[in-house]
Hints:
The protein has 15 helices and 13 strands. It is α/β, with parallel strands linked by helices. It folds into two domains: about 200 residues, Glycogen Phosphorylase B (Rossmann fold, 3-Layer(aba) Sandwich); about 160 residues, Glycogen Phosphorylase B (Rossmann fold). It comes from Enterococcus faecalis.
Amino acid sequence: MNICIVSPSFGHGGANIIASKIGKELSKTHNVFYYGFKTEANYMDLPEDKLFFYKKKHNSYIQKIRKGFETLYNSGEFTPSKYVKAEIAYLYELIAKEKIDFVILNTFVSTTYFARALKLVFPELPVIAWMHEAVDYSFNVLAKKYLTSFVEAIKVTDGIVCLTERDYQKFIQYNQNVKIIYNPVLFNNKEIASLDVEKVSFVSRLDINVKGLDILVDVANDLNTKWPIVIAANHRDNQLELFQELLKKNTKNNIEYVGPKKGNSLIEHYLDSSIFLSTSRVEALPLVLIEAMSCGLPIVSFDHSGANEILREGKYGVLVSNLDSKKMVEELEKLMSDKVLREKYQQLSLKRAEDFKLEKILPKWLMLIEETTSVVK
Length: 377
């Protein structure tokens, strides 16, 4: 079967990396193509002959004006597909040329842009929406200015893959074929953390609001221990400059930024710590939590839908409610002062990490493709 995975990019970012990895695994039994329509990147070394990019650039200033006028005269919303007609046409050509049998639209952006257009021109082509974003964040923030288009898109797809039970309960209201398939952990580390290193690891991108980096600074300033919080993170645009400005508020100087990490250096980053911390305000299914758990790290995280799903309401790690930085400090200091407690949570982390191994996830994708194809065709 010829499968096409459509994504804004195949570069940095959890959703892009996961899509690349699943595509590589599917290519062992299927012929998989990749279409990146926003940026040219190949973080996971996808085969160049199967990787396609839309390379022309839009005049962002003109597009912004057009969207502004449409929003003004259309009850505060615009229609994203109007502004990506060339990208849609490129995908049509790719589908026809490569005789694509199945399309996976990776992220809410791909779904909103392409789902309705594909089903209009190729009504018998199975199209799946793969939603990596937390559902509340998708509906209330990300798609707020084109909610009508977003809802229409998820309605016309032949199925939706989401990451949590909370996401499922929302999407099932619009589409009767919704499946929860976890994102897999991508590396197979042979070691686990010794839990003797007096460091807290933190892995993220430098998005201050979403990743709660402002709260992280508050937490760091309130800690009464010498344990540093060591951050590995990538960034884009002016995020690094904004983060460096924020770090000036870290009065205890106990936050260390070590830049982006990948592969073995990322594994070493996890292993060179004894607790993993997440201060994100919202996440769908944060890959970094799963990676940290597979390295045997105890987890302390705010109680958003993604962490709740992974940690099973606190069964497999520490959840802190209501973005309470004081409570987070309290939970961190408990773990810092008690290695036996860290060892308890290490075993819980390792047990839960088993559920996110690729060998458990891939069969669910293969079954979904087979079932959806048989129904649509």
